[in-house]
Amino acid sequence: MATAQLSSNGNGAAPRTEERVGTLIIGSGFSGLGMGIKLRSRGDEDFVIVEKADSVAGTWRENTYPGCACDVPSHMYSFSFEPNPDWSQMYAPQHEIREYLERVTDKYDIRRHIRFHTKAVAAHWDADAALWRCRLEGPDGPYEIAAQFVVSAIGGLHIPSKPRFPGIEDFEGEVFHSAEWNHDYELDGKRVAVIGTGASAIQFVPEIMPKVARLDLYQRTAPWVLPKVDRHIRPSERKLYRRFPALQRAYRWAIYWLLELVVLNAVKGERFGRIFEAMGRRHLARQVSDPVKREKLTPHFEFGCKRLLMSNDYYRSLDQPKADVITEPIERVTPKGVVAGGVEREVDAIILATGFDVEAMGSAVEIRGVGGRLLADDWADGIEAHRGTLVAGYPNLFFLMGPNTGLGHNSVVFMAEYQIELADQAMRAVRERGAGGIAPKPSAQDAYNRRLQKHLARAVWSRSCSNWYVDSRGRNITLWPHSTWRWALEMSRLRPSEYELHPAPANVPERVPAEVA
Ligand code: N01
User: Fold this and answer.
1) CA gyration radius for the chain?
2) Could you report the per-residue pLDDT of 432-480, keeping only the tens digit for each?
3) 71 CB near ligand 1 (under 6 Å)
4) What would the CATH number be for the domain defined by 168-352?
5) Is the pLDDT reported for residue 513 higher than 90?
């Protein structure tokens, strides 16, 4: 593979002629950085990371809403190989996670591989050359790059979902999405409508409540909200972790097993779930004195069906007289406010806390595989991959945090690390065997997804509520339904019988995929 003509500063202008790199990584969040670190760890410097924004950290750069914090304990929500003894909270705030990723980027010398302000637009598989021909848009305009491997590390939650409420374009006040928080807009003394009651809303509602004159919360489904067992990590404790790293590792493992043994069972097991439902009801009763509001905020679906939410002040903040919970469906937006249940409530601002478009994973970049087939077409009936990572008919393409790799109970960083391991093994298999490409056999991908969907169809996420895990066709495209140690066991070794090798350019006339082993 020709060495890439990499610019040595992360932002340098890219050459106009088509360059070649070993690996093109799209995105510099947890998974993109993790992939780069993996490649460097085995001496591979032949990769470029493209990042559409001006800094790393992905979702932890984009989401800056007040109160934004991790809802998985930070000692677990970090790279296994790079513990951070300095987390200030059990659930670190957004800025600390972002700073952590910035530090990791420098420590592992990844920055010189990153091209900021550069967006991947298209990637087409050229079977004759066994290369991905990629179209990028950089600060100086569009250009092309050829890569043996492409790693899509764009994450599942990066395209805000903005429901088109009738009339919203004529609203005269301010409208923004929680993931695009307008920090220039002063909320003091304003009447604000918040639409949505998911993980983001429950974090920022208590933060903005003291400022606003009135807050109308438009709730479609009341979520289960549990107390958050958060704590400040004292400097003395952090010092201990710095001095005795084994102690921090042990703490991480303790959190890991607590999440696997308790939270996974609570999410998936009915009996365990009931206990958590009782805890949620008690939490609500303690914090909300108004019986009408309490009734509106009472969930009516099985615990675990939606993402587990934790907050110590969400309910309490809604108990204030200036907060209203509106459960009638939104009919339309007028220039002055929001109409629901036939009542118009005038507001100065509307904040959409309406989540993300998870199905955009296949269409964010135009990807064409073997024979020019379009991934967005192949995924029109539902996105799926083999082991969440590779897709039949798209050799040498890897999705990190891809379909069915999300979790309702533990850290997705853990999941991504095993995907990175699998991708790395697949890349090495191609190189070591002198092949052109590797992709799952269609039969292996089908069998894997059939097994997964059979299990998911019976699981809590399909049973008792609608959620963003399940697509419009009723397939759960986001979650891994089992324990993460099962994921680790299944992912730690590339199983040759599940994959086929595509010929190297010299063997092109044969054009018959071969077994990996
Ligand atoms: O989005 P959501 P989010 N009309 O999809 C409602 C991750 N995260 O941004 O429940 C009216 O959870 C929708 O209603 P319903 C985490 O994985 C992680 O809060 O579908 N309402 C729901 O209440 C999380 O799950 C952290 O009936 C509409 C809300 O909008 C994911 O991000 C922190 C509507 C959307 O909730 C997304 O969370 C924060 C409509 N047309 C977030 N459309 C961590 O700490 C949607 N809604 C790791």
Assistant:
1) 24
2) 999 999 999 999 999 999 999 999 998 899 887 889 899 888 899 999 9
3) yes
4) 3.50.50.60
5) no
Domain map (residue ranges) of the chain: 18-159+357-502, 168-352
Provide the token pair at 83: 């513990």
Strand 343-346, strand 337-340: pairing: antiparallel
**In the CATH hierarchy, which top-level class contains the domain 18-159+357-502?**
alpha beta
Q: Which of 30, 62, 200, 407 to mutate to test the pocket of ligand 1 (most atoms within 8 A of CB)?
A: 200
| pLDDT for res 476 | 93
Beta-sheet strands, E only, within 256-408: 309-310, 323-326, 330-333, 337-340, 343-346, 349-352, 366-368, 397-399
- Model pTM? 0.93
Of 446, 430, 223, give the one whose Cα is nearest residue 315.
Answer: 223
State the distance from the centre of ligand 1 to the C-alpha of 356, rounded, in angstroms: 7
Residue 363 is predicted with a pLDDT of 87
Q: Higher model confidence: residue 16 or residue 104?
A: 104
